[in-house]
Amino acid sequence: MSDNELQIDFSLSRPPQLLRMSTHRRWNGILGISGPSGAGKTSLLRVLAGLEPQARGRVLFNGEVLQDSAQAVFVAPHRRRVVAVFQDARLFTHLDVLGNLAYAARRATATPALDRDTVIALLGLAPLLQRKVDGLSGGETQRVAIARAVLAAPRLLLLDEPVSALDARGRDEVLSCIERVRDASGLPMLYVSHAGAELRRLATQILALETEAYGASCDETPPGTMVDPC
Ligand SMILES: Nc1ncnc2c1ncn2[C@@H]1O[C@H](COP(=O)(O)OP(=O)(O)OP(=O)(O)O)[C@@H](O)[C@H]1O
Question: Is the Nucleotide-binding keyword given for this protein (predicted)?
Answer without folding.
Answer: yes
